[in-house]
Structures are given as structure tokens and as C-alpha cells.
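Cross-posted from the bioinformatics board.
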Amino acid sequence: MAKGRIVVDEGRCKGCRLCISVCPPEILVVSSRLNERGYLPVEVTDMDRCTGCSLCAVMCPDVCITVYRQVPARSR
Ligand code: SF4
Ligand code: SF4
């Protein structure tokens, strides 16, 4: 399975938790600190377990999550 990494735009996240509910490895949690809009943004607990599945990004209504996938090098 591809390994992934996500970046959450914490300033725009409204803490609705929709992304948390769909993450298969359950590595998304609500932060304990408020963002500038007064919401508790989402953060990742263990990026090493992110598979890059993109479910969180697809689910986010405000497009706050960018997913990066590690692509295996092509064999020659
Ligand atoms: S890309 Fe998939 S595994 Fe990674 S944080 Fe999002 S839902 Fe979870
Ligand atoms: S779905 Fe989007 S707005 Fe909602 S908590 Fe996740 S990143 Fe934040």
C-alpha cells in the first residue's frame, strides 16, 4: 500500500471532524489549541501510518487537506 503524508490547512479547518470519521488507520484527532477562527483544527497523531488513501481530503467540505503519496521508483 502506498505511503502518504497529509498537510492540514489549520487556519481554515473548522473542526467538523468529518475527516476523522473516515480515516482507516484512525490517525486524525482534534487539536487542543484553537486556530485564529476559534476552532479546534485537526491534526495527525502518527504520520507514519498514513496510507495516502485521500479519504480525509475527499470528505473535507472546505478542502483543507492536501495529500501527498509516495510513489515507488520505476524499475528499468
Ligand atoms: S490520507 Fe487516508 S490514511 Fe492518511 S490521514 Fe487521510 S484518511 Fe487517514
Ligand atoms: S473535514 Fe476539513 S474542516 Fe472538517 S475537521 Fe477535517 S480538515 Fe477540518
